Every structure is written in C-alpha cells, then in structure tokens.
Amino acid sequence: MFRYTKLTAVREVLVWIATLIGLLPFYLLIVTALKSDQEIYTTTAMAPPSSIDFSSFVTVLSTTGRSSIPTSILNSVIITAGTIALLILLGSLAAYVISRSTRRWATWVYYMALIAIILPAQLGTVPLYIGARSLGLTGSVWGLILLWTGILLPLSLFLYASFFRGLPTDYEEAATIDGASPTQTFFRVVLPMMAPATGTVAILAGLIVWNDFFNSLVFLGGSRTQTLPVAMYAYVGGLVSAWNKIFAVVLISMIPILAFYMFAQKRFIQGFAGGLKG
C-alpha cells in the first residue's frame, strides 16, 4: 500500500523545481517573441508582455530572398521527409537481408555499419563535397537528401537489424505457404510489424536532419536554396539585437518537428523499449 511520506513530498518538490527550471528557457522564448519592439528595451526578460503582439511572426514570415523563412521551411521539410523515406526503404531492406542471411558476409556488413556509426561524418566532408560538385548535386535539396541518406543509412540498418533478429520467422513462413512472394512478404507482413523500429528511425533521423547546420551550410552555400537553420543564422546576423523577431524564428522552427514527434512518439517509445529489451 502506498504511503505519502515526508520523503515523497520532498521528491515531489524537487521534481517540480527541476521541471520549472527546464521550462524556463521556453518561457523566455515565448514571452520575448510576443513582445513589441518597444517592450524589448523597456522591460526585463522575465516580464510578460503587456499585450500579446504577433507582429514579430508576421515580419519573419513575410521575408523574401535567400533567407526567406517560408521557403527555408519548405526546403527543410523536403530534405527531412525525403531522407526519412529513403532511410526507411533502404535501411529496412538491407537490414532484413543481413538479419536473415547465415553467411559470413552479412556479419561483416553489420559490423561495418557499426564502425560507420562511430566514425564522425565530418571526416569525409571534403571528398563528399568534391564528388557532389562533380555530379552537380551541390546547391540542391536532392543532393542533400542523398548525402544524409548515406550518412544515416548505417544507423537505420543497425536499428532495423536489431529488431529483425528478434522477430520470429513464423509469419514469413506462413505468408510463403499462402503463396506470397518475397517482396509481398516483406512489405505486407514484415515491415508493418516493424512499426516501432520505423518510428525510431524516423524521429532520430528527422531530428538530426532538421537541426543540421554544418552540412546545409557547406553543400547549399552560395545557392538560393537554404534550410531553416542556415536561414536562422543569417537572420540573427542581420537583426543583431531584435530578439523578439529572432525568438519568433526559433519558435516557428520548433513547431514542425514537435508536431512530428507528437505524432510518432508512441512508436518511438515502443521502439526504444523494444531495443533495450532486445
């Protein structure tokens, strides 16, 4: 039977204090973005706005040119969604073949994927840029999609392979007996059962690609195609101290990825718990 003791009360107070401290940056972000230009310089950072002012959001969303926030959001969405789609398709197929194969090469490929995860991707930036430029893929969202697919494919393969190895073959054998081809068995039977792994891959890859600044700056630099983090950087440099507009851009950049996480969080938690159990 649960007993509410003094120690329990102390723990609750500590949890609430930790929660408030963790939420403090978000509070500052929101109240600053909702302040007018005059209030930014006449009130403290902790003070709430005297009246809610959405002019900062209107200003940043109406920008044009290379640092256009709406265009940058669209580019980031295309790059992130395209990368996730390729990682799910290629990673699941490769992991399925490796996990079901009993040959030695499959084990070697699996361990090579682990090594690729450990090695920092920045080591290959120069040769990758030279190769992408020679193929005409720099300054293009499609080039960045291919780049991120190659960088994150070992991670996707590793996550899927961990789940496939714990999946019994009974369902596949039953589908084969019913006359399903290997392709039909994979896409109609096996892949739907890997929904937790797919959610994990999608969220991890989405966070990495959406928040990327370095590769976007290098491979899209000098072109009219910019992602949201690069546009935010240019916006901060241009506005200098207009923190209400800067924080408005930050809030706008958080909305898509938070919405995606809320949509897929159940699968992500299932996948993470399943990975730990396995």
TrEMBL record:
CDD domains hit by this protein: TM_PBP2 (cd06261)
- For this chain's UniProt record, which GO biological process terms are given? transmembrane transport
Lipid bilayer topology:
Multi-pass membrane protein
* Alphabetical list of InterPro entries matching this protein: MetI-like, MetI-like_sf
The compartments listed are:
Cell membrane
Q: One Pfam family, please name it.
A: BPD_transp_1
Q: Which GO CC terms are listed, alphabetically? A: plasma membrane
Residue intervals passing through the bilayer? 12-34, 73-96, 108-130, 142-164, 185-210, 230-263
Task: Give start-end of the signal peptide.
Answer: none
Q: Which key words tag this protein in UniProt?
A: Cell membrane, Membrane, Transmembrane, Transmembrane helix, Transport
Locate the ABC transmembrane type-1 domain: which residues? 73-264
Family per similarity comment: Belongs to the binding-protein-dependent transport system permease family.
The molecule here is called ABC transporter permease
Question: Top-down, what is the taxonomic lineage of the species of origin?
Answer: Bacteria, Bacillati, Actinomycetota, Actinomycetes, Micrococcales
